[in-house]
Design a protein that fits this description.
The protein is mostly beta strands. The chain is built from one helix and nine strands. Strand 6 (63-79) and strand 7 (88-93) form a beta hairpin.
Length: 123
């Protein structure tokens, strides 16, 4: 009996919380993007959630996390795979670097459900 309980507890993985919320850019829902969660102390697992129409929800490991928010924008004819090839649509980062690569946003993820809102500005 003890062996079965140990095996069951080991297969559950890290403790998680469910993070749900909204991301706006200049007061409007961010159409498309994703959020990355990275442990501030560099220990443990990372997490990520897709943003669709400004909304997101998903499991994230319990820890104090650095939050990086990305927004994608499709640009028509912005990419040429090789010289002479026809132009193709490309995806570019919509948000300023202060929300992703230079982000100082943190979230203390706890067990259970948490609601958060990120009101971002393009300038």
């Amino acid at each position: 009996m003890t062996i079965a309980l140990l095996a069951a507890s080991c297969s559950q993985g890290p403790a998680t919380g469910t993070i749900s919320g909204e991301v706006t850019l200049d007061g409007k829902p961010l159409p498309k993007g994703h959020i990355e969660f990275t442990p501030v102390d560099g220990q443990g697992q990372t997490g990520g959630i897709i943003i669709a129409d400004g909304k997101f929800s998903g499991p994230v490991p319990v820890a104090k996390m650095r939050v990086q928010i990305h927004g994608q924008k499709v640009v028509k004819g912005a990419y040429q795979p090789y010289a002479g090839a026809p132009l193709e649509d490309g995806v570019v980062e919509l948000l300023p670097a202060r929300y992703h690569e230079k982000s100082d946003i943190t979230l203390d993820v706890k067990r259970g459900k948490q609601e958060v809102k990120y009101d971002l500005q393009s300038k």
